[in-house]
Design brief:
Order of helices and strands: HHHHHHHH
Strand content: under 5%
CATH superfamily of the largest domain: RNA polymerase sigma factor, region 2, helix turn helix motif
CATH architecture of the largest domain: Orthogonal Bundle
Number of strands: 0
Distance between the termini: 49 Å
Radius of gyration: 20 Å
Largest sheet: none
Helix content: over 70%
CATH class of the largest domain: Mainly Alpha
Number of domains: 2
Length: 189
């Protein structure tokens, strides 16, 4: 057990060292290093924002805004004792969410208002997944492909656009239409 914990600690230390190196390279203007930081953190930042605003397109846009702000200010980032890059990154994300609500004059969702987490035991999740898969297969091929790339493969809009050779705005529109159509198919059964 101790050796397993030691191995996990070594992996965490190596990951922290790699991230620190990427931060330093990004501070020197290395776009590729910043791209790697983006790959490490984008999905987590997106989820953080999404659970605050509950809108896929807005969460995607706001995630992009967060990373643009981080890129513009990364030279100002100075790690302090006990403080991690993730804390600074999430502070930027939180401020973007606050600005969104300030501008749109909506109330911020609290954790108390989030939907309950589904019970993942028993056969219910499998039946639900099967039901969703069945409804998904009744959609046009383009809709299926976009939804699978976005939500199964968890690809960002930009990568989906590259994969299907369409503009990002088109991918967003297709995603909205595909989700609406999937909802209709799910309500039929």
């Amino acid at each position: 057990m101790k050796s397993r914990m030691a191995i996990l600690q070594l992996k965490a230390d190596k990951s922290d060292q790699r991230q620190t190196a990427l931060i330093h390279r990004s501070q020197e203007g290395d776009e590729q290093a910043f791209g790697e930081l983006y790959e490490i953190w984008a999905r987590r930042v997106y989820r953080f924002i999404y659970f605050k605003i509950r809108s896929v397109p807005m969460a995607e846009d706001m995630t992009s805004e967060v990373f643009l702000k981080v890129w513009q200010k990364i030279h100002q980032y100075k790690p302090q004792a006990g403080a991690k890059f993730s804390a600074w990154l999430y502070a930027v994300a939180r401020n973007v969410v606050i600005d969104y609500y300030r501008v749109s004059s909506r109330e911020e969702l609290s954790f108390e208002n989030l939907p309950e987490i589904a019970d993942l035991e028993g056969e219910e999740p499998y039946r639900e997944a099967s039901h969703i898969e069945s409804a998904l297969q009744r959609l046009p091929e383009e809709y299926q492909k976009v939804l699978r790339l976005r939500f199964v493969d968890e690809m960002p809009i930009a990568r989906v656009a590259q994969a299907i050779k369409k503009k990002e705005a088109n991918v967003r529109a297709i995603t909205v239409r595909a989700l609406a159509r999937l909802r209709q198919e799910l309500e039929k059964n």
